[in-house]
Amino acid sequence: MGMIKLPIESQNFFDRNYKEIFSSGHLAEGNWNKTLELWTEKYTGAKFSIACNSNGAGVLAILNLLREKYGKTKIFIQSNTMYGVKTTAITSGLDFVGTVDCSLDYLMPTLRQLQDFVKNLKETEKSVFLITHIGGWINPEIEEIARYCEKLGITLVEDCAHSLGSTLNNKHSGLFGFAGVYSLYATKAIPAGEGGLIVTNNENAYKELKKYSIYDRFEQELDLGVNIRMSEISALLSYSVCKEIKKIIENKYQIAQKYIACCEKFGWNFIHPARDGQRSNLYKFILKTNEAEPVEFFQKINSRTSPVYDYHLGNDPEEIAKRHICLPIWYDLEEEEIQKVLTELAL
Ligand SMILES: Cc1ncc(COP(=O)(O)O)c(C=O)c1O
Q1: What's the whole-number average pLDDT of the chain?
Q2: Could you say which of 1.20.1730.10, 3.40.50.300, 3.40.640.10, 3.30.160.390 is the CATH number of the domain covering 8-242?
Q3: How remote is the CA of residue 294 from the centroid of ligand 1, in Å?
């Protein structure tokens, strides 16, 4: 299997500009951070963005603020997400009160599953729901979930580690609740090695997060914060990759079209990347099954990457962990690999 690659345009742009970082002496807190943040705001439609060194750092900052400044005392997440989401939630110092079940449809919680969880939740107005958009899709019920949370005073924070460039009804993830954070980690949909992009439409949250990210060492008012900054070299690399996002995603759609045609022809059940208002960034291409023996059912597909998660953090009533597999899909995936997948799907 090949490696994740960056467009040549990204590499050339980085090449043309990195020396200027050295000659300017601005290795941190310089123009590339600003450029990246402005790009993020323009691209996603967010009012505010802050570049940081990982999704985890950005989420932790948001949760810390919610605990210290917004009176939040507890947090819950969804069962189908990365283990690190749980560790981040616990590390925030909020009381971890459990996980919401997820549905095999989109591997995420439905509004009904959230309501079932909330039935047993006391003091909803002191709670934070850290929701994860999985695999490149936005939770299809995010609007309803956001309204429900707002009604109960639950603060919604979006873990958008998988969803930079994804939209639902033309709206980007990260803007349905208090704040969201994308990841630019090496294996993500838009990879730049490491990095996170916080987005929010909440001016107060933005101002506080901005202070938090630099220990509030200038104004010295927040009494809260660490260094979650992105270096200028990282910001330049991130911008070099982000500015090619259209090309990256379109390239993956060309691969997906081949998979889709083959899946439709041979009757595979897959999550469509662009249906029902979704426009996935194609972080993952997912096959699913309701067969009694899913492991045997998928046996002949050797050309696969690891599942989104082969574990669950709470209950897994719909057996998501073993009822899906992922086909390889990333920028500039070799034709030979694509053909291998198509052959196996046709067997
Ligand atoms: C769902 C999810 N949330 C958060 C993260 C953390 O992102 P980062 O590595 O940028 O902190 C990841 C992956 O690394 C992830 O898959």
Answers
A1: 97
A2: 3.40.640.10
A3: 27
The CATH classification number of 245-346 equals 3.90.1150.10
Closest alpha carbon to 237 in 273, 282, 178, 186:
186
The response to whether residue 59 sits with its C-beta less than 6 Å from ligand 1 reads no
Confidence grade of residue 2 (pLDDT, cut at 50, 70, 90): low
Nearest residue (by CA) to ligand 1, atom 4, is: 161
Cβ of 155 less than 6 Å from ligand 1: no
pLDDT of residue 1: 47
Q: What is the SS3 assignment for 65?
A: helix
- Which pLDDT score is estimated for 4? 78
End-to-end CA gap in the chain = 20
Domain extents for the chain? 8-242, 245-346
Q: Cβ distance 270 to 288 under 8 Å?
A: yes
Backbone φ and ψ for 154, nearest 5 degrees, come out as -80, 130
Q: What mean pLDDT comes out for the span 90-107?
A: 98
> Which contiguous run of DSSP H or E holds residue 172?
strand 171-172
pLDDT tens string 140-196: 999 999 999 999 999 999 999 999 999 999 999 999 999 999 999 999 999 999 999
Q: Is 327 in the pocket of ligand 1 (CB under 6 A)?
A: no
